[in-house]
Amino acid sequence: MEPEDRPVGRDEAARTPAAPAPRGRVLWHRGWGVCAVLLGAVLLAAAGVGLAVVPASVAEERAFRSALPCGVATLDDCLRPVTATVSGTEIRDHPKNPRYDLHLTGAPAAPRSLPMGGADPLLRHLRAGDEVVVTRWRDYAPAVTKDGVTQSTDDTPEGRSLFTTAGSLALSALGLFAFRAGQSAVTRARAFATEGVPPRLLLRGVQAAGAALLAVPAGLFGVWTGPLGVIVLWLPAVALLLLATRDLDTPQPN
User: Fold this and answer.
1) CB of 102 closer than 8 Å to CB of 144
2) What is the pTM of this model?
3) For residues 52 and 27, what is the distance between their CA atoms, to the nearest angstrom?
4) Cα–Cα distance between 199 and 42 in angstroms, integer?
């Protein structure tokens, strides 16, 4: 048997260099890798800014809860009444997309539109031309009153610190994944082009999405604990998620 006709052994085949990946595919992986790194950096920066403003949001919520009517309070930071005229209402009692808005005209201090959160006890009975008293605090309008009936609005600082904390945690999980995935794509573009995107990287994406979703129940839990409780609940929940998906990260024997 001639040497060129001799069968190639398994060890020799393994030592045979793989064909170089097409340049276009290498550039593609490097390109989306750079975009992912930039996106991850933006998301991480947004998460950092969000967490940085949480203490100010907490202080604002406390100030709102302790605010008194201007006739009683000794400070300028008080609840002041503003008279406005109803220009219309918008009520949509759809379960999937409800909408309850009050539209106003009149005093410059009165908002043009207010989210009311529901149709009762006041919004449903208002008509264009009705005069109402809007309670103002800083840039918020937390309540509307007519003929002794008061309805709270959704325009308050309440809950904003929880929303900001939960949103920042979700952004941090997604940003960290995007940054690391993009970094891997840039540094290993040739391997990605030849072998495809590693399954482990796809798993990391699923884990990051799960961690972002876990910020929602953590934020709801924060109603009783505050922003710190959101973080305290989210961290072990993410740890449990990683533990539960640990087996998926282990290569399975053939």
Assistant:
1) yes
2) 0.79
3) 37
4) 25
The maximal CA–CA distance of the chain, rounded, in angstroms, is: 108
Q: Which residues contact 95 (CB under 8 A, 6 or more apart)?
A: none
Q: Taking residues 21-31, what's their average pLDDT?
A: 81
Q: Are 146 and 129 in contact (CB under 8 A)?
A: no
Query: Is the pLDDT assigned to residue 23 strictly greater than 70?
Result: yes
Mean pLDDT of 5-30: 61
Question: Poorest-confidence range of 69-78, 128-137, 209-218?
Answer: 69-78
For 65, counting Cβ atoms within 10 Å of its Cβ (0-12 exposed, 13-18 middle, 19+ buried), the class is: exposed
Residue 207 CA to residue 202 CA, distance in Å, equals 9
Q: Is the pLDDT of residue 149 over 80?
A: yes
Contact 18, 194 (CB under 8 A): yes
> Strand, helix or coil at 198?
coil
CB burial readout 109-140, b (16+ within 10 A) else e: ebbeebebebbeebbeebeeebebbbbbbeeb
Query: Which residues does 122 contact at the CB level (< 8 Å), separation at least 6?
Result: 116, 144, 145, 146, 149, 150, 151
Alpha-carbon distance of 114 to 174, in angstroms, equals 33
The residue-averaged pLDDT of 132-141 equals: 93
Bridge-based pairing of strands 140-146 and 113-115 is: unpaired
